[in-house]
Every structure is written in C-alpha cells, then in structure tokens.
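Homework help thread (please don't just give me the answer)

Our assignment gives two proteins as sequence + structure token strings and asks us to describe the second one. The first is just a warm-up. Here they are:
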Amino acid sequence: MKKLLYSACALAFIACGSSKDASKENDANVDQAKKYAETITAKDLGKHLFTYASDEFEGRNTGEPGQKKAVEYLKNFYISQGIASPLGGNDYFQEVPSEYLSNNRRGMKLKDSENVVAFIKGSEKPDEIVVISAHLDHEGIKDGKIYNGADDDGSGTVAILEIAEAFKKATDAGKGPKRSILFLHVTGEEKGLLGSKYYTENPIFPLANTVTDLNIDMVGRIDDRHKENPNYVYLIGADKLSTELHNLSEAVNKKYMNIDLDYKYNDENDPNRFYYRSDHYNFAKHNIPIIFYFNGTHADYHQPTDTPDKINYDLLENRSRLVFYTAWEIANRDARLVVDKPVAEKK
C-alpha cells in the first residue's frame, strides 16, 4: 500500500510539474508573440502606404508602369530586410504572362505582370506552408485621375510588409515559426482575381502542403455600420472549411486583441458575396482553409478619393497585429489545421 501511495504521489508530482512546464512554455510563447507583434506600428504602416499609394505609382494598374514601380518597391523591401525569395536569389517575381491574363479577361488585352513572393522557412515543419496574401494592383488612371487604392489594397499590402518584418525579427532571434510562411502579393485582382488564380494553378509550393491562406483586402478604414464602434474587422470564410480555424481565430483575438469580429458578410445569403470576391477564394476552391480580413466598403471604394490620408493607421495597426498573431498560432501549433467541411461551390 505504501508503495502504491508513493507511486501515486510521484505521478501527481510529475503531472503537476509537467503542467507547470506547459504553462510556462505557453506564457513564453505569448510573450514572444507580443514582443514581435509590437514591432508592427501605425507609424511604419503609414510610412509605407504614403509611398505605395502615392501618385508616383499611378494607381498600380496591372502590367502598367505604376504597377512595375509597385513590385520593385515590394522586392526592395524584402531584400533590405533579408527576407528570402522562394524562387532563389533576387528573383521575387512569379511572372504572370499577358497571354494568361488576357485569356482570362475576355475582350481585354493585358500586359505581362507578376506576383511578388517572399519566404521564411519553418524551423520544424518547413514543408507546411502558411500563406499571407494581399493584392498589389488597383485601378490605375481613368479620365486623367489617379486611383491610388490606399485602402484597396494598399492597406493589405503594407500590412504584409510589417507582418513579414515581425516574423523575420523573430527568426533572427531564434524564435522563428515552426511552419514556413509565404508572403504572397498577387497581381490582377481587380481584373478578376487573376494573380491568385495563376498562383494556385502554378503553385511554388504544393497546394497539398498549404495549411491556410490569410487574405488581407481593405483593412484601413471604417464603414458606416461601425462609426460608433471603430475597433472591428469583418471576418469572412474562417468557418467555411475548418471549424478548427474559426475556433483558433476567435481564441487568438480574445487572447491578444479583443477586436469586434463581425461576421455579417460571412452569411451564405449575403447579397454582396464577398467570400467569392477576393483572392482567398482561389485557395478555398482547392480545399485550403482561409480567412478574409475586410473593413467593408465606403464612399471612396474604387474612387480616386481612396487616398492614404484617409486611412486610420491605429486601426490598421490593430488589424495587422491580429493577422500576425493568427499566423503565429497556426505556424507554431503542433498539428496542422483539420479540414472538416466540404468546399463551398460558387453559386
């Protein structure tokens, strides 16, 4: 009996110790996540966006000179941060041929364009890929007016830059993600989600190895519905393929940010059909769980008045950090996300 009691006590002691160790490990992970998330700042986001959505970039129309300046800006940022290209060397462009673009856009002849790709290799599960995406293009110049696209989607583009920098700082300190992160800036979204379509048809990494796509498209403004409660973001698609992704997203927000997560546009019967209208959908079609982060439309949507001075940079900071935290949790959890729902076909 004494031996049994001794064994029971020993096991209880070990279990208690293991529980304390696990708790310490979790606390350390939270502290690390916060440390690097705090490098994502309103000031740095604004610095990027006042350049990226300036007249110099001529509205970033697919294949046009302003869009070429935009992709060079993104490439030079990644080089300056020492964030590698998955294509090797200084080649950060996945070329998207004019023939492909034009064939998918009937009646419109489009010029060669490119997706911009950068990559941080995972420390333990490098073959599993977390994609963070945003579209780099906008409407260009119409009737002599420049459509700067500061919110659409300059906001998502610069959010990725800051998120990438945060992950790189973590990696340099030996705290990098266990899974690999692909930072994917896609072209031709305004022409029909063409850059993301091209990527999913010509993936750099097998789609079977792609764990999720966190897509950021318009996260710098406030819509009419939230004028009294500006600390919000619309989430679309988180529960469409993976219950686990939805639950993780909710838990991450509660743990770190406490942003009001609005699911209005996640309703299958919503007439706006936003789930089908941004680049994440090309991943979802391939059974890859996604989250679409979105602030809703506003009076400057697809207008020349969508300029960087109208962005709420504190909100952009909060939403960018939320995406970072979510990516951090997905990239560092033990098991990859479980897909437990069928693909939602476009109706």
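The one we have to describe:
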Amino acid sequence: MAQANQENSYPKTGLGKNLAWICRLIKGNLNSKVYYTSLGGFDMHDNQLAIHKNKLSELNDPLFGFYTDMKNAKLHQNVTIVVFSEFERRVKDNRNGTDHGTAAPMFIIGGSDKGKIIANNPNISTLQQGDLKHQIDFRSVYATILQDKLNFNPSSIGIKNPVVNDLF
C-alpha cells in the first residue's frame, strides 16, 4: 500500500511536472480550494489527426498519474479535476484542418463523482452556422462546481446559469 507521501510517476512533460507539484501541495495540506495548470498546443491547423492524438496522450498520461497519486494517498474523494478547452473546433475541414468552433466536451473527474455522461454525442446534421450546438453551457458546469463542491452561491458573483442536476 502506498504511503501518503509517496508519489506516483509522472511523465517528464510540463503538465506532468505541474500536476506533480499540485499533488505535493494537496498532500502538504496547503488548503487551497483551486489549482490551475494548462496544456497548450491544441491550436493546430495542419496534420490535425496525428498531432491531436499525441496531444491527447500528453494530457492523459499526467492526469492518470495525478489521479493515481491522489487515490494512493486516499485523497481522490476530495479532488475534482475539470478538463476544458478555451476554444472548440468546427466540423468542416477548411483544407488545412478545422477552424475554431462553439462547442466541446468537458471532463469532470473525481473520486466521489458518479462517472457518467450527462449529454449526448453531437448531432453533426443540425449545425448552427457550421458549428456544433452546445448542450450544456459551461457556466452551468462552473455554477454546479461552485455550489456542490465549494459550497458557494454562484449568483453572488453574477453566474445566473442553472446548475447541472445530478452531476455529482
């Protein structure tokens, strides 16, 4: 059984190093409610499929290391990981890849979460001006996290979106 101060291995990437540090801070009881890191390089327009596959591995491997580390330290039930993108992609190829769009998935990962999909696959036959239609506004996800995980009223900072029922 892993000790609380023992670390799982992380890839030697920027994200891997950042998540290892965040894990150390959580294990050290820094007591911050939110930690943030990022992974760039998704804004590609050429050779999208191959590059995107590599970028998703670059995202997956450190996240797996972080989650495993939290689980081994018996802290995973207290952590919620939110993976999101600052931009989305259009459906239609523009001969060099795809342009920025309006809808993308969010991943909510945590030890006490229900592990379910709360929306449907996008319908590419009913695009809105060439873009996917989002099913859940990201602000509703943020409102839900604020309310259900941080015990904070999202409307007190101007978030008027409804919470996502049964997310947690």
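TA reply:
I won't write it for you, but here's a hint about the kind of observation we're looking for: The helical segments are 14-27, 48-72, 138-150.
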